[in-house]
Amino acid sequence: MAETAREYLIHRFRGDAEALRSRCEVLQRGTTVPGPDLPTSRQMATACETVVRMLEAVAPHDDAAAELSALVALIPVLDQHARGHAASPPVRAVFAGAATRIREVEAAEQRAARLVADAGDADHADGDADDDRVEWAEEGDEA
Q1: Rounded to the nearest 5 degrees, what angle is found at the Cα of 131, between the Cα atoms of 102 and 100?
Q2: Angle at the Cα of 131 (from 126 to 133), degrees rounded to 5?
Q3: Strand runs labelled E in the chain
Q4: Residue 46 class from Cβ within 10 Å (0-12 exposed, 13-18 middle, 19+ buried)?
Q5: Residue 17, SS3?
Q6: Burial class (CB in 10 A: 0-12, 13-18, 19+), 17
Q7: pLDDT, tens digit, 9 for 90 and up, residues 43-60
Q8: Distance, CA of 46 to CA of 68 (rounded, Å)
Q9: What's the pLDDT score for residue 96?
Q10: The predicted structure's pLDDT at residue 68
Q11: How far is 1 from 131, CA to CA, in rounded Å?
């Protein structure tokens, strides 16, 4: 079964939160590494975890379009969080990045739907309802 847009986004931001928490552990041990300092890394991890909770609050649907609509409805909330963290550009970037990822997912789903429609639904002849879902690549993704 293909990974849904919701699952992709949750996995992505959960992974970012885990990586930031690991970074915090390294910084707490006194190891110097390039990038954000310990307090900023903690704030960014917390922001990623907030995004994950928002995404998890979207109920999974068998209907990919309904699930995508619910994800898109999060964009104004994420934009508001980004504006609320204007004093901390790295934290603001987490929320703005989440809104951007949802927009990208929405655009990819729309492209996939157009391709299916253009193909005259020939791919659905086998009765596989998942044929119209986009496979979400993780390689090279950054929040």
Answers
A1: 10
A2: 165
A3: none
A4: middle
A5: helix
A6: buried
A7: 999 999 999 999 999 999
A8: 24
A9: 97
A10: 92
A11: 10
Contact 94, 47 (CB under 8 A): yes
3, 134 in Cβ contact below 8 A?
no
Indicate the SS3 state at residue 9. Answer: helix
pTM of the shown model: 0.79
**What residue type is 135 in one-letter code?**
E
Checking if the pLDDT of 120 tops 60, the result is: yes
Find where tokens 């964009």 sit.
Answer: 75
Q: Is pLDDT at 83 greater than 50 in this prediction?
A: yes
Tokens at 86, concatenated = 């204007």
CB-based contact 74:54 (threshold 8 Å): yes
Q: Which of 28-37, 73-82, 84-93, 118-127 has the lowest mean pLDDT?
A: 118-127
